[in-house]
Write a structure and sequence with these properties.
heterodimer; A: mainly alpha; 77% helix; 0% strand; globular; B: 228 residues; six-stranded mixed beta sheet; five-stranded antiparallel beta sheet; 32% helix
């Protein structure tokens, strides 16, 4: 009874804002404001940025997570913690960190400038910010998927003649596919919602770095219905992505591992 | 000829084992669980690095420490050409039976790999099961697929870790016969780890008991004839 009441309150608190976004938007108004060039451009930047970030994260993060999950070395826990840190950092701190690393005055600013590269306020900066903030979701999911593999299967592949690359690509990756897919999906979802780090590191330049969530923020003072409509799209896409991640994991409680 | 002479010190385990197995000979290693039987298997297969010692097979050295005038040798599992079958088979669950066997075959074009794999399975009476996934196979079938995969490598030695323990009596005796036939035909030095003395009897194998980290003659105990 008590738990039922608690669930009702939780549902109200968590679901009400989401429902409000969807209810507050008349379908016709939503359609109209979505068809504006600004909205479509912002959505395009969001999807392209999140997609590129996910591709980078999957390509680099999957082998990294495999190594972390299947080898023991001193300081491994420290490395894992460090890699998961961006997930819980305040977005503003993440943004400052990125500027301190890759900004003009940052640690890598000099070398980058020498190479003629200036990252802040470019699309590349959007991708870096999204990968930085959302990447840990994939790392973490991939790590637990690889750690759950039966080592006997990896050994069987080795004694059957597979190289370490073959063990990874032909055995570990296919067997962990559900967790990897869920990790990539959650990363994409988190990247779509990213706001603070993108704003600080990439700015909010219309048609260059202004993602959908930045567009929502830019509009809410002047065009509340427009902001609502864009928000509704983000809600729908995020809900679909969460559902996909859940299905990929094949067990409802699996999402817990993703934090 | 497989010659193993290794020391392994890991955690609470201290092994010092010496073992020679001739072509076509089967040696059964028995001993209580936790004695380190699987550790010996892993050391032979190259899945675990011994603290000291040598592992040789035929003319080839699989493992040897550096010595005066020679470099250390520690071949990767894939370079040892060992046929390994572990308990429950460790078949790759995402691959069908024939693809599990094909996994171990290199140097053949893709199309021929399927035919060669099916041939291997056919020889173990599994012609009808080539497209089944491991989850659809019975325990005995899985074990035979694992044996087919191990033999498909054209191994220089065969090592089986508790290969029969998950099987019922009838399946078990068929699996034992399949192993005995393969060892005889290919003249493979073969090591079988088993906690059941009945297996050794049925295979006509020499038995060594692992006790206190060393291999020795087995204690004369009553063995169960049927091995079930």
């Amino acid at each position: 009874m008590l738990c039922g009441a608690a669930l009702a309150v939780v549902l109200l608190l968590l679901a009400l804002p989401v429902v409000a976004i969807l209810v507050d938007t008349a379908p016709a108004a939503l359609w109209a404001s979505l068809r504006t060039r600004e909205s479509l451009t912002a959505l395009g930047i969001s999807f392209a940025g999140a997609g590129t970030a996910v591709a980078l994260v999957v390509l680099l993060g999957t082998p990294a997570a495999y190594l972390l999950a299947t080898t023991r070395f001193p300081g491994r826990t420290a490395v894992v913690t460090l890699l998961e840190l961006p997930m819980v950092l305040p977005p503003a701190v993440a943004g400052i960190g990125l500027l301190a690393a890759f900004g003009p005055q940052g640690l890598f600013g000099g070398p980058l400038a020498d190479a003629g590269i200036s990252l802040p306020f470019t699309f590349a900066a959007v991708v870096i910010a999204l990968a930085f903030v959302a990447g840990p979701f994939h790392l973490r999911q991939a790590h637990s998927a690889f750690a759950a593999l039966d080592p006997a299967l990896l050994d069987a592949a080795r004694t059957s003649g597979a190289r370490e690359s073959g063990v990874f690509l032909r055995v570990a990756v296919p067997l962990a596919a559900g967790g990897l897919g869920a990790g990539a999906t959650l990363t994409f979802a988190r990247a779509l919602g990213e706001f603070g780090a993108t704003l600080m590191f990439a700015g909010s330049l219309a048609a260059v770095t202004r993602t959908a969530s930045l567009e929502v923020y830019a509009r809410f003072g002047t065009d509340f219905p427009g902001a609502l409509a864009l928000s509704a799209v983000l809600v729908a896409v995020s809900a679909a992505l969460l559902l996909v991640a859940r299905i990929m994991l094949g067990r409802p409680e699996g999402l817990r591992a993703a934090g | 000829m497989l010659r193993v002479d290794v020391r392994v010190e890991r955690h609470a385990l201290a092994l010092d084992v010496a073992l020679e197995v001739g072509p076509g000979e089967i040696v059964v290693i028995s001993g209580p669980s936790g004695a380190g039987k699987s550790t010996i298997v892993r050391a032979i297969a190259g899945l675990l690095r011994p603290t000291a010692g040598t592992v040789r097979c035929g003319e080839r050295t699989w493992f040897a420490p550096a010595g005066p005038g020679r470099r250390a040798v520690d071949l990767r599992p894939r370079d040892r050409r060992i046929g390994l079958v572990v308990q429950e088979g460790a078949l790759l669950p995402h691959l069908s039976a024939w693809r599990n066997v094909a996994f171990a075959i290199d140097g053949l074009p893709r199309a021929e790999r399927r035919a060669a794999s099916i041939d291997r399975l056919d020889r173990l009476g599994l012609a009808a099961r080539v497209d089944a996934k491991p989850a659809q196979l019975s325990g005995g079938e899985r074990q035979r697929v694992a044996l087919a995969r191990a033999l498909a490598r054209r191994p220089a030695a065969l090592v089986l870790d508790e290969p029969f323990s998950a099987l019922d009596a009838a399946t078990r005796s068929r699996a034992i016969d399949a192993v005995a036939a393969a060892v005889r035909d290919q003249r493979l030095p073969t090591v079988i780890v088993s906690h059941d003395a009945g297996d050794a009897e049925r295979l006509g194998a020499r038995t060594l008991a692992l006790r206190d980290g060393r291999l020795g003659a087995p204690e004369p105990v009553q063995s169960s004839k049927d091995g079930a």
